[in-house]
Specification:
Blueprint lengths: L9 H4 L8 H9 L2 H15 L3 H8 L2 H9 L4 E6 L4 E8 L4 E8 L1 H7 L4 H22 L9 E7 L3 H17 L4 E5 H12 L7 E6 L4 E8 L2 E6 L6 H11 L8 H9 L24 H13 L13 H36 L5 E5 L6 H13 L3 E3 L3 H4 L3 H13 L27 E2 L19 H12 L1
Parallel strand pairs: 1-4, 4-5, 6-9, 8-11, 9-10
Antiparallel strand pairs: 1-2, 2-3, 6-7, 7-8
Helix pairs in contact: 7-8, 9-16, 10-11, 10-12, 10-13, 11-13, 12-13, 13-14
The protein binds 5'-O-[(R)-(carboxyoxy)(hydroxy)phosphoryl]adenosine (KG4) and zinc ion.
Keywords: Acyltransferase, Metal-binding, Mitochondrion, Transferase, Transit peptide, tRNA processing
Family: Belongs to the KAE1 / TsaD family.
GO cellular component, one term: mitochondrial inner membrane
Length: 466
């Protein structure tokens, strides 16, 4: 298998010591004439520096002001970390020029969840088309782009690989710089695209199929993890509830449960709120899932019969379970958010916003309940529109823009990169370090890490340069 310096964000990944140092490739590739031309408007003074001082310039304050003041970047974002193949073109002034998402709904129904190999095949089938459509809708060609941003983790490596290969091919062919993006950071930062005046620091709740995170965003690339899930994420609990209730999974389970819950009595079943006794900001949804399964099994529901064909009595029973589940699942979020607000205000007394993002944040009940908590604590809730909460290319392009402005990017990959090149994929990649008070004693938190956190990499890189 061919090996190459597999970096996507040179300032970040140089520190991972994965393969050959990327600085060498950065320097050689930076000599690429076309790339120089592309960057000339923005960072000419820096690429003319001597090679040995190049890395120091990549995220210097000077670089920041030079690149940051240029508001004419156009970035293509590519996202394939899970089951959606997405691409978008975004301008650095926040204008979304195009957005395309191809979802694997049929596969989800067929396999009752994401099957990595099937998902990889599905991404491979549509990736070219999705990217082309994003460019066409934006009325642009590849050579009009300033950079390509792509999710490199966390996620399923088979799936990440499809997006990263596409991004590298395109960036290599058109001599474009490339930015490797953290999927969860992208979910958080898209709020800054939506609400231009959203300044650091702010608190973030990220709720999706695989993640349940409470993060204090202190600055770009500087995150403190206040809480995480010790087992399942809330989205997974929604999806399983939908499956056990025989709901239509084509739009994913969450929206189906949300719809049916509107017809039910949320107080009819007294599910237990998870982790009441844990005075931390961590989450657990595995127990609630089991409670729902037992409730379904002990009732007269037959999930083989789709809810659309169920008798009105049966439908009511399912709606009651959906509503009761949702009430408790969200109550768990509310309790942990209240504590996180307390903690975050101690660390950063100036916080004014709670950002809620990730697929589950598109849920209206979730938004309404969290809004109450936020108002009670004199903060403001920022929720991106539903299309930007679920996986999308816009959030990746925008995060690419934010880091590109800071000088955190890689030069174009070589045009002749072999298909089987070893790529820098980060399936398990924490966003920030755990807040000490938040360390859970719960044994099921999986600690094995493949990569150091994004925050620690960026901080180490900045220290090296100062
Ligand atoms: O962020 P996302 O699109 O993908 C991941 O990174 O996981 O989140 C997908 C999750 C799924 O579990 C889906 O059921 C859930 O978000 N979801 C919802 C809603 N829309 C999507 N959950 C509850 N209510 C919704 N309206
Ligand atoms: Zn996501």
């Amino acid at each position: 298998m061919a090996s190459l310096a597999p970096t996507l964000s040179s300032t970040i990944s140089r520190l991972t010591h994965l393969h050959k140092p990327s600085l060498h490739s950065a320097i050689t590739t930076l000599k690429n004439f076309r790339f120089k031309q592309k960057l000339s408007k923005r960072i000419r003074p820096f690429i003319n520096s001597s090679p040995s001082s190049l890395s120091a310039h990549f995220s210097s304050a000077q670089m920041r002001s030079t690149v940051g003041s240029d508001d004419d970047l156009v970035v293509l974002g590519i996202e394939t970390s899970c089951d959606d193949t997405a691409a978008a073109v975004v301008r650095s002034n926040g204008e979304i020029l195009s957005q395309v998402v191809s979802s694997q709904a049929d596969l989800l129904v067929q396999y009752g969840g994401v099957a990595p190999k099937m998902a990889e095949e599905a991404h491979s089938k549509v990736i070219d088309q999705v990217v082309q459509e994003a460019l066409d809708k934006a009325n642009l060609s590849e050579s009009d782009l300033s950079a390509v941003a792509v999710t490199i983790g966390p996620g399923l490596s088979l799936c990440l690989r499809v997006g990263v290969q596409k991004a590298r091919k395109l960036a290599g062919t058109y001599a474009l710089p490339i930015v490797g993006v953290h999927h969860m950071e992208a979910h958080a930062l898209v709020a800054r695209l939506v609400q231009g005046e959203l300044q650091f620091p702010f608190l973030v709740l990220l709720i999706s199929g695989g993640h349940n995170l409470l993060i204090l965003a202190r600055d770009l690339g500087n995150y403190v993890q206040l809480g995480t899930t010790i087992d399942d994420a809330i989205g997974e609990a929604y999806d399983k509830t939908a499956k056990w209730l025989g709901l239509d999974l084509r739009k994913s389970g969450g929206p189906a449960v949300e719809d049916l819950a509107r017809e039910g009595d949320a107080n009819s079943i007294k599910f237990k709120v998870p982790m009441k006794q844990h005075k931390d900001c961590n989450f657990s949804y595995a127990g609630l899932k089991t409670q729902v399964r037992l409730a379904v099994e002990s009732g007269s529901i037959n999930p083989e019969i789709p809810v659309s064909s169920a008798s009105s009595e049966d439908r009511k029973e399912r709606a009651n379970i959906a509503a009761s589940f949702q009430r408790v699942a969200v109550l768990h979020l509310e309790e942990k958010c209240e504590r996180a607000i307390e903690w975050a205000s101690k660390i950063e007394p100036s916080i004014k916003h709670l950002v809620v993002s990730g697929g589950v944040a598109s849920n209206q009940y979730v938004r309404a309940r969290l809004n109450q908590i936020v108002e009670k604590n004199c903060l403001q809730l920022v929720c991106p529109p539903p299309k930007l909460c679920t996986d999308n290319g816009v959030m990746v392009a925008w995060t690419g823009i934010e880091h590109f402005r800071m000088g955190r990017f890689d030069p174009p990959p070589p045009t002749n990169e072999p298909e089987d090149a070893v790529l820098d994929l980060r399936p398990r990649w924490p966003l920030g370090e755990e807040y000490t008070e938040g360390r859970s004693e719960a044994r099921s938190i999986r600690r094995a890490r493949i990569h150091p956190s994004l925050t620690s990499l960026i901080q180490a890189s900045m220290q090296q340069q100062s």
